[in-house]
Amino acid sequence: IQLESFSQGQNSIELANQYAATGEFDKAVVYFEKWYNSDPYNAYPPYLNCLIALKDYDKAEKLIKKQIKKNPAASNLWVDLGNLYEIEGKENEAKQQYEKAIKSLFPDVQQVLSLGTAFVEKRKLNYAEQTYLHGRQLLNGSYPFSFELADVYAQLQLPQKMVDEYLNVLEYNEAYLPNVQAILQNKMAFDLEGGLTDIIRTALLRRVQRGNQKSIYNELLFWLLLQEKDFETAFIQ
């Protein structure tokens, strides 16, 4: 009997995904519901997408709230609710949910990352920024979310802020130097206007001149000058 119910479950998943892939959401929803009843964790995201595709917003809202009840600490679920309200044109309610999600955070790296990722996936980059900055505050320096913020600033096309965050990573842990070099090298290679190198150089010089005790910035500046083939300045450096 167990085997039979397992194969029926597998069948529901396959049919749900198959119908959803071909856009037959009215057929897919029946199987998503069956799948959700047996495995609410894994079935939830595609089931929700299916209900939204069918414009069955009432049912979608009930589903999200049911999921929140099951897992109140999963603040990314408030993003789903906010996103649903936004689809329905309820801008104020959406804003409330997004803000509630950020306020509900506690000092837990995984929870902050999960919420930040949920905002990034929904292209809510300003809320993702708020999430990581609030997380940094909550964790009081034990994890700075610099890589995550740099990524958000890159998507927002704020190169100055992006570079500052990559340099903050080294303030947190110098062992990240090879990672930071690799990322900056990649960013410079794709920077067609060529302004990024100047931003990095200025930011580094500022930190070095501030009498920053960290020789890591001198090291990175030396590396940058070599990238630019400015051997003379590199030699002085």
What percent of residues adopt helix (DSSP H or I)? over 70%
Principal-axes geometry comes out as: elongated
Mean pLDDT: 90
Strand portion: under 5%
One letter per element, helices H and strands E, the order comes to HHHHHHHHHHHHHH
**Low-confidence regions:** 1-6
User: How many β-strand runs?
Assistant: 0
* Major pleated sheet: none
* Radius of gyration over all CA atoms, rounded: 23 Å
What is the assembly state of the chains in this entry? single chain
Count of DSSP helices? Answer: 14
Backbone structural class:
mainly alpha
Distance between the ends: 74 Å
Describe this structure in words.
The chain has 237 residues and is mainly alpha-helical. It has helices at residues 2-21, 25-38, 40-53, 57-70, 76-87, 91-103, 109-121, 125-139, 146-155, 159-172, 177-189, 196-209, 215-227, 231-236. α7 (109-121) packs antiparallel against α8. The radius of gyration is 23 Å and the shape is elongated.
What's this, in brief?
With 237 residues, the protein is an all-alpha fold. The protein contains 14 helices and no strands.
Strand-helix topology:
Blueprint: H1 2-21, H2 25-38, H3 40-53, H4 57-70, H5 76-87, H6 91-103, H7 109-121, H8 125-139, H9 146-155, H10 159-172, H11 177-189, H12 196-209, H13 215-227, H14 231-236
Helix pairs in contact: 1-2, 2-3, 3-4, 4-5, 5-6, 7-8, 8-9, 9-10, 10-12, 12-13
